[in-house]
From TrEMBL:
This is NAD kinase. It holds the Pfam family NAD_kinase. One of its GO terms (molecular function) is metal ion binding. Its EC number is 2.7.1.23. One of its GO terms (cellular component) is cytoplasm. Its cofactor is a divalent metal cation. It comes from Bifidobacterium criceti. Its main location: cytoplasm.
Amino acid sequence: MQAAETKGPRHVVVVTHERLRQSAIVENAIAQLQGEGFDVTVIDNTEAPDFGSPSPKVDPDTEIVLVLGGDGTILRAAELVTCTDVPILGINMGHVGFLAEYESFQIHEAIHRIAEHDYSIEERMIAHVDVWLPDAATPLGDWALNDITIERADRGKMVELSIAVDGVAMSSFGCDGIIVSTPTGSTAYAFSAGGPIIWPAVEALLLVPLAAHALFARPIVIGSDSTFSIRIDDDSTSDGWICSDGRRQRPLPRGTRVDIRQSSGRLRLAHLSDAPFTNRLVTKFNLPVVGWRDLHTPNTARVGTSLRGQGDVEDPDDADAGAYVANEAITSVTGGTDSDNARNDDARGDGACDVSTTAQSTEPPVR
């Protein structure tokens, strides 16, 4: 979805961390935005609202929210725009910055493209959670872009949970807790806990148990039409604790039921690149796209393959370097150069022929 052009005064909200507010990067970004004709509002300290309470929103005439920080800052900014039409664009000034679109050294280009409406919009699924406290007539509702965690309140004990999907009991166990993640959050806490990565376009929810004392405690993925129900058993040795996106949280007494499903709302992320999600995955996690088998097998050694997953080599020097690395790998395995190995092959003959030759016997055939 392409960004729509804005008529009239243009307003942008900059969300950053308070420790970055006086940095040269943030100050220069604000000055550049103002130079492009934007009215700029800066938010550098967003307190987490109470669980189940509505969070303040940006003005509806805001064109975009520019986040200067890491993924935690983006999650704070999400509270300002969730279920609105205002998109978020993240510039990574933290560590991994998986939700960020650009790195800090690209901020000048990013602002210029915002001014030119040169970006696209992707809508991300968010999760809705209803907390039914014991004897409550109505639930406490909240949401999450990344994940919802239910953990033990007493750090020295386990919390006993019963898991159901669409009202059908599936399992129960004692554990440290569980994570229910959206596809966006599958690369965060859920990934660290052993869950699979789910592509953002997939409409699904993921449940990952944390240190469950059970034989069947594997991650579970359900479709967007299904609902996870997690109940804290009455005889649990510990109460529970719920947290949405690492921010909005509250205690859960025994007997509480938590229902988690797909929300009808969406969060809009601005993109400056049409590169697929796989590129982001390889780059952010620095995945080794060339395996050890490729490096040590002469017939399959890849020349000029980069960590970005692109096999095409644009610079001839890079191609020479790649060929040198491949040849070195081949030499290290075979114990000689290609010409040496060719001479050795001539001396010992073809392997298949050798097998048939050695299989011949001088004894007469049995009739």
